[in-house]
Amino acid sequence: MNRNDEYMRLLDEISVPGEGADGCVERARARLRRRRLVTRPAVTMLALFVCFVGLVNFSEPVAEACAGIPGLRELAKAVTFSRSLTDAVDNEYVQPIELTQTDGDITATVEYLIVDQKQVTVFFRLESDSRECLAVDPQFRNAESGHLESCAYHLNDYDVPIGELQSVTIDFVNGDVPDSMRMYLNVRDVGSWFGTAPAPAASDRWDDGRDYDEPVYDARFDFLLEFDPYFTQQGKNIEVNQTVTLDGQEIIIRDIEVYPSHLRLNVEDAEGNTAWLKGLEFRIEADGEVFDTVKNGITATGMSGTPMMTSYRADSTFFYDAEELKIVITAATWLDKDMEKIHVDLAGCTAEAMPEGAELVKAEREGNRWVVAVGAAMRNWDGDETVHNFHQIFLGSYFDAEGNEYYINSWSSNISGSEYEERPGFFYEEFPLYDYPYDEVWLSPAYSSYWTATEPVELTISASKT
Amino acid sequence: MRATDTGEFAARVEGIRDKLYKTAYMYLGGEAAALDALDEAVYRALRACRKLRQPEFFDTWMTRIVINECLRELKRRKRELSLDEIPEEAAERFDALPLREAVRSLPGQLRDVVVLRYFAGYTLRETAEILDIPPGTAATRQRRALELLRLTLEDKEA
Known about the structure:
The complex is a heterodimer of chains A (466) and B (158). Chain A starts with a helix and ends with a strand. In chain A, a hairpin with a 2-residue loop joins strand 9 (236-246) and strand 10. Chain A is an alpha+beta fold and 466 residues long. Chain A has helices at 3-15, 24-58, 60-65, 72-78, 83-90, 229-232, and strands at residues 95-103, 106-115, 119-127, 134-142, 152-155, 166-171, 180-189, 219-226, 236-246, 249-258, 263-269, 275-286, 289-292, 300-302, 309-314, 324-336, 342-345, 350-351, 358-366, 369-377, 394-399, 405-407, 412-414, 426-433, 440-445, 449-462. Chain A is 16% helix and 42% strand. The relative contact order of chain A is 0.10. Chain A is built from six helices and 26 strands. Chain B has eight helices and no strands. In chain B, helix 1 (6-28) packs antiparallel against helix 2, helix 6 crosses helix 7 (124-131) and helix 6 crosses helix 8. Chain B is globular and about 50 Å long. Chain A binds chain B through residues 3-4, 6-7, 10-11, 14-15, 17-18, 20-21, 24-25, 27-29, 31-32, 176, 179, 229-230, 233, 237, 239, 241-242, 254, 464-466, and chain B through 6, 9-10, 13-14, 17-18, 21-22, 25-26, 31, 34-35, 38-39, 42-48, 51, 71-72, 79, 82-85, 95, 98-100, 108-109, 112, 118-119, 131-133, 149-153.
């Protein structure tokens, strides 16, 4: 059978869709009906909000009474931490939502969502006449199963005054944003952001995490967040599939994912490399604009089974009509493949190797634990002694001679401390090794060296969707 | 398309259902996976159809949703071959595969075109619109794909 005969036979084979194809629309309708049964109360609330907006717009007395209602201007102020979210608000890429709950003397209101295929930012406010400072611990669960969502999240501000708009960003590193999810806001009164809580005594400065008690919350809220499918479908993938040489290592730039809230540059390791890529400094140039790497929140992600960071975040080009994207790589951080673990002689306070610019400063036994101190030069330090650029020197895992893994639960970073020499552009990091009787340990460096390009490495690609 | 036009939605999906199914089948390589992708795509489209401002582009829009669903599934399975990775002996390698596997092994950009043109039955212009590429690019990719597959099919549009 030649190729053309094979083609005709394959056409015949797929010419009759299976019986299952008949009912695809009916199944979709039934699924939608089930979903609506679950979400009707929230939809009703949204409808009330729409009516309310109508009243504000068409009734002068109501409009006057509601002159203080926050609008997009306040939202624009709340997203200044992110260029991508600022662009989203400028383009009115916002899903309004109005959900309010009161627990005791605290009221929580969810007002806006900025959502796309991979990320959700929820804008909410906490109000109370009798509290001064409230801290919130959010949690997210699947709306249908009740299980914890497989996502990462972070509050975008930690000291927001009561009554002001604040936000939390939920990031789906691998999966997509679901149709809906539950957001729990657990709120506690912290007295004052500049409170006078006593500093822990020196002997208790390390918290090993074993005495952790669940905080006592003053209020708990449970919101069902429904995402408009128009927003959750937003995102596109641009194939790159080109290899660049950085510092003698070959890195395959696989593709770029462009979402309204952020951009992801996905890379892979090439065979023969002697170091893992741990950090990438780059910018995207498009449509006369420059888009830098993300500085707040998630900056890069990896995959299980490799120390390499495989996906790097930048501000998004989504709202710009660019035909081409230029990727400009200026620097990289590496971890030598033979430095994934380094041996440290705790008793002798020596290490077989250290990350570039770092020094082992102290290793002292304190009862049943060791306290280790390392120092390192700040990156990109420009001589301004008021600017402290700390970075991670070691990862949280450490190992004994038999390969058993332990975890560092607490760290302390400072520029001098009481016992170290203060050196310009230098900082110190201390951490305890709990219940560790041995005199040697294997630590996991976060990096081994930096590289800065003498000439930026540039790639220009078509921005057309694939 | 208005949200209440579910009858129209059903009729439009029905009108291109075979094309959608064939597209999904060729991307995913089997009936069960194709039906799952079709179900998911139709559900997503039903939820989003009120956002479709130009109903005349329904077919293009719906086909893109199916392709995106298939690509999402393929991404879950493994990474794809890129255009730059085609080895010199590629034609021989593709020739050794059954046609269905050979099509699925093509680099994504070539596979997109050949699936839509020669299995789903879209015209070259429709294929270019669905993939959001110029017709000339679609024609070039089509030619390259056929070379790799060693298929000599008559192109009535050419």
